[in-house]
Specification:
heterodimer, A: 233 residues, alpha+beta, 5-stranded antiparallel β-sheet, 8 helices, 5 strands, 19% strand, B: 178 residues, Rna Polymerase Sigma Factor, Chain: A, Arc Repressor Mutant, subunit A, 0% strand, globular
């Protein structure tokens, strides 16, 4: 009965979960968590609920923004007609048959958009150009498939916090997948939140996703959150 | 208006809608809220200080507009709204409630938080603002922010751990905070 109460206050633990503590205090909390099981469970549960909360509102980020809202901004511009929507879409909505990655990666989506753009002017491009386009598309496709496999493996075998890395022999892209949290939904299915850091041309971008495990051991990504540039970790 | 600000606002629209949905708990009302808030923001865009976060600045306008709307609305309306949702849910029956996964459960729990705690949870846990940024956005002291956050997070935890308790009783007890 002695250990029924936590040795750290809830506010400190929640600030710890939110990454609001300075490193010395955070270390102190971590030490306490080693001996205080109730506090440890509290932290785990809080962390889980925060992740769920973030993901639970993600649908809105995937939806098309109603035109009348964009108009509020556009109609106040002198050059309203010149705004090109394709340049400002944060969450690509385009569905690609090759799986979730086309939608998942801003870089990949941008590249796909570029390819489609170039493809429109096919007649005007020379043969070599066409080959390059095909090659680029193929490399992207292969990268996506092989990245998907790495992600699946990371989710299947890695403990939370342990990254699994991937790099493309062709495009020079690299990525790492780190499961962050694991939980079960009410049907008993395992779902894991993960962070994906991808490096393209020396620039790293992070994505958070939630994948759930199907019966056949395949992890299907259900939600993705892009970290905005101004919100770097 | 500077075309860069415009582009940034357009790019931020999904996040404005998400925050507004958290506050209003209804997609239609959320878009109405975003629209009035954007109109206000644009009309006083010169008050935004370049170099500070544009998203937080607009979040604040969304939040104050929302509070104004609630105060303007009759108390009974919001009461009926919540009760109606509750009725619809009970029609789905026990099974539907069980099938609801953790994501629906957490959204449901957030929607059941009192107004002030919900705004804090949306900014910190969903939008990822730091405590300082969230406190500034809401125009409240840090101490108030952290106490609302702790109460809100604990309430969420209890609702998630015992969903049965988050039934009508829980909802009614929260209505008094509205």
């Amino acid at each position: 009965m002695k250990n029924e109460t936590m040795t750290i206050d809830e506010a400190t633990l929640i600030a710890y979960v939110d990454g609001e503590l300075d490193s010395a205090t955070a270390r102190e909390v971590e030490e306490r968590l080693g001996t205080d099981d109730i506090a440890k469970r509290f932290v785990e549960r809080q962390r889980e609920i925060s992740s769920l909360a973030r993901v639970a509102f993600n649908d809105t980020m995937h939806e098309e923004v109603p035109g009348h809202l964009k108009d509020v901004i556009n109609s106040n511009s002198n050059r309203a007609q010149q705004i090109d929507d394709t340049n400002i879409i944060v969450m690509p909505k385009k569905k690609r048959t090759s799986g979730n990655w086309g939608r998942a990666l801003p870089m990949a989506a941008a590249l796909a958009g570029l390819l489609i753009g170039v493809g429109g002017g096919y007649e005007f491009s020379d043969k070599k150009h066409q080959q390059n386009i095909k090659l680029a598309a193929l490399t992207l496709e292969q990268d996506n498939v092989s990245m998907g496999k790495t992600l699946n493996q990371a989710l299947e075998v890695n403990l939370s916090g342990a990254p699994m890395t991937w790099s493309s022999p062709d495009s020079g892209q690299s990525a790492s997948f780190t499961p962050v949290n694991t939980y079960q939904d009410k049907t008993g299915r395992f779902c894991r939140e993960y962070r994906k850091d991808i490096v393209v041309n020396g620039e790293t971008s992070s994505t958070f996703g939630l994948a759930c495990r199907s019966d056949k051991g395949k992890w299907e990504t259900r939600y993705l959150i892009f970290e905005n540039g101004d919100q770097s970790l | 208006m500077d075309s860069r600000i415009e582009k940034e606002l357009l790019a931020l629209l999904p996040r404005f809608r998400r925050f507004a949905l958290g506050l209003t708990r209804n997609p239609g009302n959320a878009d109405d809220l975003v629209q009035s808030a954007l109109e206000k923001a644009i009309s006083r865009i010169d008050q935004w200080e370049p170099g500070t976060r544009l998203d937080s600045w607009v979040f604040r306008i969304i939040q104050t507009t929302h509070i104004d709307l609630i105060r303007g609305r009759k108390r009974n309306d919001s009461f009926l709204e919540v009760v109606k949702n509750q009725d619809e849910r009970s029609h789905d029956g026990e099974r539907a409630i069980e099938a609801r996964n953790s994501l629906d459960a957490v959204r449901h729990a957030i929607f059941n938080l009192p107004e002030e705690q919900r705004a804090v949870i949306m900014l910190v846990s969903v939008e990822g603002l730091s405590y300082k940024e969230a406190a500034e956005t809401l125009g409240i002291p840090m101490g108030t922010l952290t106490s609302r956050l702790v109460r809100g997070r604990n309430a969420l935890m209890h609702m998630m751990d015992s969903p049965e308790d988050a039934g009508p009783g829980e909802i009614n007890s929260n209505i008094s905070h509205l």
